Amino acid sequence: MSFKALGGRAWPLRLAATVAMLAAAGSIGTAGSIGTARADQPAPAPGKTLVVLGDSFAANPPCDGVLVKCDGNNDTSAHECLHRDTSWPVQLSALMGVAGTADFENATCTNASIDSGPVTSTGQQVPGRDGYTLAQLAIKAAGNGAFGPRTQVVAIQLGANDEWPRDSATTADAPAQLTCAFNLADGCDTDAVTQGRWPDLNAVTGAAYADRIRKVVDYVKYYAPNARTELVGYPELAPENSSVWCLDVLGVFRYVQPRARAINEFWNRVDNAERDAAQLLSIDFVDARPVTAGHGLCAADPWLLAVLDPKVGLVGLPFHPTPRGDTALAAEVYSHSVQPR
Questions:
Q1: Of the candidates 305, 307, 310, 298, which has an alpha carbon nearest to the alpha carbon of residue 321?
Q2: CA-CA distance, 312 to 298, in Å (whole number)?
Q3: How far apart are the C-alpha atoms of 282 and 331, rounded to whole Å?
Q4: I need a labelling partner for 341 at 20 to 30 A (CA). Which of 125, 271, 280, 284 fits?
């Protein structure tokens, strides 16, 4: 989806980029001078208490792509932005006292990415890459008046659906992960990278992550100056040094891929990249791994969904969080959100 598809709502990000550039050049002083220069701009929004921008791990939609489609059931305006009522952003909104109110902006969508679009710069089409980018999620939220001085928390959970390195056609999104994991002949060890079946693990760095989200973070800091901006990590899918990847079916049968080092290392790299990016951008990092440790895909008590998982009435995206996993993460994000700065 292009910025053009979102119409006139693209102006806030363009304005933010201009503000950052002029401020760096020392040619503007206060926000008041901007208002004088651009008297045609709408009045600033007061903002919403909680804003969450994220992918399917945050949205955790009540769909599985088979029994229930994830495209809004042919509602084109939904654009894969279905949300389960037990997802961690919804549970977090309850902890913050804004559940079900206009003070909560849930801009989380299946297939969302930081900035990986459907076509590379060389014109190569990437199948399935049609979700919102982080900038588009921010525009969507800004159009709803999400960012302003009243905004307390802006949480971001993204990166698992992206190309690494940027502008390649190799991704570790859910379809690619399942394809690699279910390849019994070749496995999904690190040779999958050299064979072009898996993203370049060395490209997943904190510096690269920070560069890819910097403009949106700067935008949030400018328009929601009192908000705590947080990068939220992903839950533990496997212990740090594990080479095994599992997936339960109907909660009773377990498929095991014994050669899955590339998959597991990817999640390690994303986790480390988010932590380092948060430090580089002077924002918070919420580590989801400690609170979900011991509950990965191969654990005796996984907090990640099976295929046709009976814990959620059979409908849910495989290897995404169960309600119990989302509860743990919501509590962890909340604990960061209420800490004094």
A1: 305
A2: 19
A3: 22
A4: 271
Residue type at 77 in one-letter notation = S
Min mean pLDDT across 28-37, 61-70, 152-161 is at 28-37
Query: Measuring CA to CA, how many Å separate 119 from each of 7, 12, 105, 196, 230?
Result: 20, 24, 29, 18, 29
Give CA–CA dist 182/165, Å, rounded: 24
Residue with the two structure tokens 């480390």: 272
The β-bridge partners of 231 are: 156, 285
The two structure tokens encoding residue 246: 């599992």
pLDDT digits (tens, 9 = 90+) for 23-58: 333 322 333 333 333 445 556 789 999 999 999 999
d(CA 182, CA 176): 10
Q: Are strands 228-232 and 104-108 parallel, antiparallel or unpaired?
A: unpaired
pTM of the model: 0.85
